[in-house]
Design brief:
Layout (H helix, E strand, L loop, with lengths): L2 H23 L14 E8 L2 E3 L3 E11 L9 E3 L6 E2 L4 E7 L2 E11 L11 E4 L4 E6 L8 E6 L4 E4 L30 H26 L21 H15 L2 H18 L5 H9 L7 H48 L1
Parallel strand pairs: 2-11
Antiparallel strand pairs: 1-3, 3-7, 4-9, 5-7, 6-7, 8-11, 9-10
Length: 339
């Protein structure tokens, strides 16, 4: 190769190297597709990684993200630990620094089932990788992405040494003579006193409620007897009383007034026996009306009143009998309908 051609090739190589360097260093230059590592990084750890059966293990996932590219609220961590069970809820801690957010999710794990102890000296556990889901801010709409975080291997050692089972056929002993005295949160005597006081208080409250709710016997006030009904005379009976009194007193003026009152009452009631004209004739006779004639007229009027009373009583009895017969017929009809 001639020197000139070699110089040209060398110049082209140097130019390409300078161009690549400037493209990487100058701001705003184009770059390849943004890797997930620049948007979100997840790391899974176990503390401690070597434990004895029954110990508690702290499983921790640390997520670091750029808030300009990933929404922190969209980050979801899903982890499964097979036989190991979380002790309580997972603890989530968030810290922000500039445009970077650090999320730490911590699980407290414990395995106490029958398949957790190692069959011999130790037993390894390999958990399924944790899944971290998130959404990118650059996409329209935001794109959902998922990455995985590998758990390190967990080793569980047995608590029984090689000589524990061969040293003695029964290595466990119980000594009842050295059992410590029982301890109490509250003294039994004090607790008994408090319970007795509470029982007495409840009994007193119950007795008070019974006393307040017990029905009282009220003394009914004496009812005053109803006054005897006042017997009121009808206008005709009043006129007859006056006529009889006037006849006994033999007063002509009183007899005339009584006769005229009897005549008016009989006329208002509808006189059919001619008693009203007779009473008016005696009242206006030229001579004073005889006492016998006044008493005779009074007897005739009272006989008429008695007849009217008998008719009214008979009519009342007839109406009552018809009402009783109608009620009996209605009852018989109802009984027949029900049968």
């Amino acid at each position: 190769m001639s020197r000139r051609r070699f110089a040209v090739v060398a110049a082209v190589v140097v130019a390409l190297a300078l161009s690549a360097t400037l493209a990487l260093l100058l701001p705003g230059g184009s770059e390849p597709d943004d890797p997930v590592a620049r948007r979100l990084v997840a790391d899974a750890t176990l503390e401690p990684r070597v434990v004895l059966f029954g110990d508690t293990v702290r499983a921790r996932i640390d997520v670091t993200l750029d808030r300009r590219r990933v929404d922190p609220g969209s980050v979801k961590v899903r982890a499964a630990f097979k036989e190991w069970r979380p002790v309580g809820a997972a603890k989530v801690v968030r810290r922000d620094a500039g445009s970077t957010t650090h999320l730490r999710v911590t699980y407290l794990l414990r395995c106490l089932k029958s398949n957790c102890p190692p069959e011999r000296d130790l037993r390894p556990f390999e958990f399924v990788p944790a899944k971290i889901g998130f959404q990118e801010r650059n996409g329209r709409p935001p794109r959902a992405r998922t990455i995985r975080a590998e758990w390190p291997r967990l080793v569980v050692n047995t608590r029984i040494g090689p000589g524990d089972l061969t040293a003695s056929p029964n290595p466990y002993r119980a000594d009842l003579a050295t059992v410590p005295d029982p301890s109490y949160r509250a003294s039994p005597g004090r607790l008994l006193g408090l319970l007795a006081a509470g029982a007495l208080l409840l009994a007193g409250v119950g007795g008070l409620l019974v006393y307040l709710g017990w029905p009282r016997r009220r003394i009914e006030p004496a009812i005053a007897p109803e006054p005897a009904p006042e017997f009121l005379l009808t206008p005709l009976e009043q006129a007859l009383e006056l006529l009889e009194d006037a006849a006994r007193a033999n007063g002509a003026a009183d007899q005339r007034r009584s006769l005229e009152l009897v005549a008016e009452v009989l006329a208002q009631r509808g006189d059919e026996d001619g008693l009203a004209p007779a009473a008016r004739e005696l009242a206006w006779s030229p001579v004073p009306p005889p006492a016998e004639a006044s008493r005779g007229l009074a007897v005739r009027v009272r006989a008429r009143l008695d007849e009217e009373l008998r008719k009214l009583d008979a009519e009342r009895r007839r109406i009552e009998a018809e009402a009783v017969a109608a009620a009996e017929a209605a009852r018989e009809v109802g009984d027949a309908a029900r049968r």
